Amino acid sequence: MKVLLFGNDAHKLKNKAIKAGLEVVEEKSTPVWLDKPDVVVSFGGDGTFLQAEAVFPYIPKIILKNSRICKLCIKTTPEKAFLALKNKKYKVEKLPKIEVIYGKEKLVAVNDIVVHNKDPRHGMRYKVWIDGGQVNTEIIGDGVVVATPLGSSGYYRSITDSIFETGLGLAFNNSTEQSDHMVLNENRIIEIEITRGPVHVFADNQTKYLVVEEGERIKIKKHKTPTKIIRMI
């Protein structure tokens, strides 16, 4: 089995992976498209995993802890994890992702899409449609969070004080009028029109973001492929 080690300290795992009988693919020296790994080893915390998923979106990830905060990390040592990979003693869990589309641009997220006012001195004004039907009238606030079940324990929870297990979560951040948060079927399509902007749109912790101008719309929906996380058996 070929593995790619990902994270600031991932090089520390190389000898352990080789000792377990795994072949280590070097990210910098070997183009992934020429020597594609079977598994990406994310060595860090939850943020490291999100970065790994953004760079290698279609390859299963095993998440090993090298950070104080890592809710997704498997609870075992790297040595035991590598032996499990070698002996195929694992299962692959598929979790939904979401995407935001703005013109020809697109961002994909594991946790959440965040739409936020660019200038914190001024509220963002916007309208929301779900499957073509408008929700409320114009909303004024600091923005919107659309989360997956995996991401519902993050920013979404800080706004709504709740989490969910299936579907898409739609949370209105600090709106001036009462706007009830929603948990929608995962196949619903959310459209947001910016009536006062511009606004910034973020996907997880990615450095790339979108700038959406006043009068423009974005579309948020389920992504066609899930994230794949390896769990020990």
Structural features, described:
The chain has about 230 residues and is mostly beta strands. The chain folds into 2 domains: about 1-90, Probable inorganic polyphosphate/atp-NAD kinase, domain 1 (Rossmann fold); about 100-225, Sandwich (Tumour Suppressor Smad4). Helix content is about 15%, strand content about 40%. It has 4 helices and 18 strands. The chain has helices spanning about 15-20, 45-55, 80-85, 155-160; strands spanning about 1-5, 25, 40-45, 60-65, 90-95, 100, 105-110, 110-115, 125-130, 135-140, 145, 170-175, 180-185, 190-195, 200-205, 210, 215-220, 225-230. The strands form 4 sheets. It has a 6-stranded antiparallel β-sheet with strand order 7-6-17-14-9-10, with no helix packed on it. A 6-stranded antiparallel β-sheet has the order 13-12-11-8-15-16. The protein has a 4-stranded parallel β-sheet with strand order 2-1-3-4. Strand 15 (about 200-205) and strand 16 (about 210) form a beta hairpin. The longest helix is centred in the N-terminal third of the chain and has 10 residues, at about 45-55. It is elongated and about 60 Å long. The model has no long low-confidence stretch (mean pLDDT about 95). GO terms for molecular function: NAD+ kinase activity. InterPro entries: ATP-NAD_kinase_N, ATP-NAD_kinase_PpnK-typ_C, NAD/diacylglycerol_kinase_sf.
